[in-house]
Amino acid sequence: MNNIQAFNYFSILKQYLGPLEKIIQLNRNNMLGLKLPTDPRWVNIVEKNIEEILTDHAYCEQKATSTAISLIVSFPEYTELVQEMTKLVKEEISHFKMVHDKIIARGWTLGRDRKDDYVIQLVTFFPKGGSRTTQLVHRLLYAALIEARSCERFKLLSEELEDQELAKFYRDLMVSEANHYTMFLNFARQYGDRKEVDQKWQDLLEFEAEIMQSLSKKETIHG
């Protein structure tokens, strides 16, 4: 390849790289089902208070543990679900310890829990009551979406944080969150009517996108 050919080749490549990156990003968001990506400027807010994001993250892991335990207690007759939730309890509490260790290593102590505006708003979408199966499906869909948004946030942190230690930490955790998202969504589809569950999932995603429009303004995992 001569110099002129090389110049033409890289000019063409540069022309298509921009749109290609956008396509890749869209595909990643679609894989999670999310309708509205997090504003990247959220990372700038996070970097101003790493202690706060780690504290909030620690409690997110603790709440994920509680969710898994609650599903076991509420729906013990779903044997496969109980088995997977038992594994999830162990995994989520180990993640809590990992985050707590990060806090200690930086000379801080775990702060108090704070309310999660995102989750508080999200869980108002489905009406209360209904059959046990309906209640289970709704709880599984909530859990799936929370995990999907966490995964998206972890991905953003892994790519944009200047703190390379934390960037790698969130890159490693991102995979776990993606697995949790698909597990909860698959269980909802397994226990409920597939067509009905998929419609509820799409409706919940639209609602979540509306919630997200007023968030991404705090140094919290979901806020």
UniProtKB/TrEMBL annotation:
Against InterPro entries, the record matches this protein to:
Ferritin-like, Ferritin-like_SF, tRNA-Hydrxlase_MiaE
Q: Which CDD domains match?
A: MiaE
Alphabetical list of Pfam families matching this protein: MiaE
List the SUPFAM superfamilies.
Ferritin-like
Gene3D superfamilies linked to this entry: 1.20.1260.10
- Quote the PANTHER family the UniProt record gives: TRNA 2-(METHYLSULFANYL)-N(6)-ISOPENTENYLADENOSINE(37) HYDROXYLASE, TRNA-(MS[2]IO[6]A)-HYDROXYLASE
- Protein known as: tRNA-(Ms[2]io[6]A)-hydroxylase
Organism equals: Aquimarina litoralis
